[in-house]
Design a protein that fits this description.
Asp/Orn_carbamoylTrfase (chains A, B, C), 4-stranded parallel beta sheet, alpha/beta, 5-stranded parallel beta sheet, Rossmann fold, 2 domains, Asp/Orn_carbamoyltranf_P-bd (chains A, B, C), 13 helices, homotrimer
Amino acid sequence: MRHFLTTEDWSKAELQALLDDARELKANPRQDRLRGKRIALVFMNPSLRTRTSFQVGITDLGGSSVVLDAGGTWPLETEDGAVMDGTAEEHVAEAARVLSTYVDMIAIRAFPKFEDWSVERHDPVLSAFVRYATVPIVNMETIVHPCQELAMLMALQERHGSLQGQKMCLTWTYHPKPLNTAVMNSALLAATKMGMEVTLLMPSDEYMLDEKFIEAGSRFAGENGRGLTLTHDVEEAYRGADAVYAKSWGRLDQIGLPMEERLTPDALRRFIVDEEKMALTNNATFSHCLPMRRNVKATDAVVDGSNSLIIEEAENRLHVQKAVLSALNDQ
Amino acid sequence: MRHFLTTEDWSKAELQALLDDARELKANPRQDRLRGKRIALVFMNPSLRTRTSFQVGITDLGGSSVVLDAGGTWPLETEDGAVMDGTAEEHVAEAARVLSTYVDMIAIRAFPKFEDWSVERHDPVLSAFVRYATVPIVNMETIVHPCQELAMLMALQERHGSLQGQKMCLTWTYHPKPLNTAVMNSALLAATKMGMEVTLLMPSDEYMLDEKFIEAGSRFAGENGRGLTLTHDVEEAYRGADAVYAKSWGRLDQIGLPMEERLTPDALRRFIVDEEKMALTNNATFSHCLPMRRNVKATDAVVDGSNSLIIEEAENRLHVQKAVLSALNDQ
Amino acid sequence: MRHFLTTEDWSKAELQALLDDARELKANPRQDRLRGKRIALVFMNPSLRTRTSFQVGITDLGGSSVVLDAGGTWPLETEDGAVMDGTAEEHVAEAARVLSTYVDMIAIRAFPKFEDWSVERHDPVLSAFVRYATVPIVNMETIVHPCQELAMLMALQERHGSLQGQKMCLTWTYHPKPLNTAVMNSALLAATKMGMEVTLLMPSDEYMLDEKFIEAGSRFAGENGRGLTLTHDVEEAYRGADAVYAKSWGRLDQIGLPMEERLTPDALRRFIVDEEKMALTNNATFSHCLPMRRNVKATDAVVDGSNSLIIEEAENRLHVQKAVLSALNDQ
């Protein structure tokens, strides 16, 4: 049984098939593909787009969804053999097996807690659900965000056509708080896998993404005969780019420290995506997952410019997710 | 494209058409008018009736709804050009445009924050959604509550028949905390527009509603050849009334002060709607939007009396909202 | 009009009819029995299984549900005649009557507040809904949990066949915090009513369940020619049992005390259900409602053993609840 946990284990051809089906679903949104199917949407973190687009997409395909919010339930234990006298009231062993008797698929949002990256990098909640569930699992963002990256690829293809050899600048951008690395991990995996020439711009080595994603990105780039360049040089990253994708994230080496020590230094506000930097590119498109702080992560001029793909990318969440659910349902 | 933001910009004839359709929908609740339509219900404040009646009504008409709760999402920025380094993670510019790609209508509850009335009187959240959304917007209570006032009108017409020239007493009533003025603003607009002779009873000038609603109410009354009387005299307000509508609200001049300074003085408990006051009327009907604190805002004897319309009015929320959604969908 | 508040007022034959229908619904899950019916699910406490299984079950039967969470609404007054100047913004008199105009059934989860058992033992929230609603009410757990006990009975019958004369050990088990007695109250009512020979194992008399449940259990046992034995002796309770049902609960005589005084003494950890105790039984099945803390309430070896019914029982929630809703709808 196949899950949709990360794009890493879906081949380039399989991802392209999902993207092609998403385009078909964009043209013909209401199809009877999930007739009578029930899907649980488990949110351990807030959501606006993900929740709405999954619910609408499932309804469009004739299925039904049940939303479970963190606030409406209780902490779950993920470790096998645990003596559960802490805060967790239930083990994923039970939650996943029971939900599997009620529904046909389970989609999960579970951010890392930013307490211990050595544990969190193994995606413990998602992994536990995969271990115990007897129905397909969909990742709605954990340490990666594969639905977002499919939506990004779809928006890029709609504007650029083929992505082969297109130059992608993936840039860290400012946000006052240390955020999840999931979206940039996924953007890196997706862009390299689809044959883009990728440069990853970070303020310093301290902001390096987990080595497993850097290694996978390098491997995918290599398989396509492309490169993955890591840099701290803004001009090098932007110069000649066909596409700019921005996201802020926190330092992995600071996970577990008190929040006041982890706040982003003001000096890094200069990484904001602005017209000056965009002028270095090859008339690049701009995108960023949402939510996005305006005039902090990117200026209004960039966000509202004709090269901005942010709304298209967000809309495409609906279409790619329908393609993913449809593919998992058909297996 | 038309929205349903306030009854102020819907003509008397248009409002009556909505009320007539609501009666038809009360008689025949299940009609295929929203087949395949998706509607987002965005709640930035708690709700029991609004949430249930919108969800049920949409299902009855063949549509589907997605509920977004404040608790499950994040604060939204409403000001254009803002440098978003405060608490807001997303601008309405994005939220409204993205939701517009997922759904066919957006309904919003967004109370004022009671921090700065000079800003809040312009209904910033609702206005921002109107500015950016590309689908119709429905007001589920902000600084006015037009769905409630339609429900009130429907309940009144069911009991009184024509409302022309009927004497309406709109009375402030006691509640320990300073509440939103939305319902009374709306009741004033609705009663004057439909040709009632309206008296607004407040404890003192300090409790005056925003001048823009007083002015609109006076204008509507004038257009119908009726009057709008403002008074602090309980007997004057109740004497001869055909209908009494009660609601508590906080002083606008105290918005922004610490809550402990804004608590309602005990002396004003005397504004409770009781049998003694009702005895002054012309056997008036009584109503109040819900929730309502019994024996604080009105006595059990009044609330449970045969002239009480509170349950009919609350039920009518379902019917009038279906009429509103249907009208917006048909344009 | 009949409600489903407790199994106490449903006869043995009526309960068996619900269980038989649940088996039919397990075999044929999608049936058009609630076509066009709307059901409100009111949760004043968190839920995972109850919420999911009710929503899925209602959809399977062609109906629609609206979920109302405590977090999304406000405290409700239950006492008639109350002067509502405390925290409650609305009386159940209004909430129940209004919901009755929107939906065809109302299901409610409302745990006792553990402040004053002399009040809470009368199930004030549920009782108030019954007093005022004009549609059938379903108990989703208050001071009893009748849906859970039907699911337990169904799982037991699937494994044991007839339950007549089977020996049931109901055991208190360890949990660090004092929990609701509802599930054990219900297990006691159900097991005695269905003709099992029941032993209730508690650490001491201080853990006695409310006398009204003990009395009802004794009466039901007597009607079946069986006994209800109360004991503090672990070996007596487990010896020869055909089924073991475990649940932790807090002392009724400590309700209202500060939580730190109510925490369960460490010495009672020995009540954990483990292989040593299970070895005393007649190869008994094991069950526990979920959530359940592993290696605190029961060991992994017991929970994961082939005699464990926990997942079957949880799955059966879906089937028995569909049978209950169907029966209430057919009256």
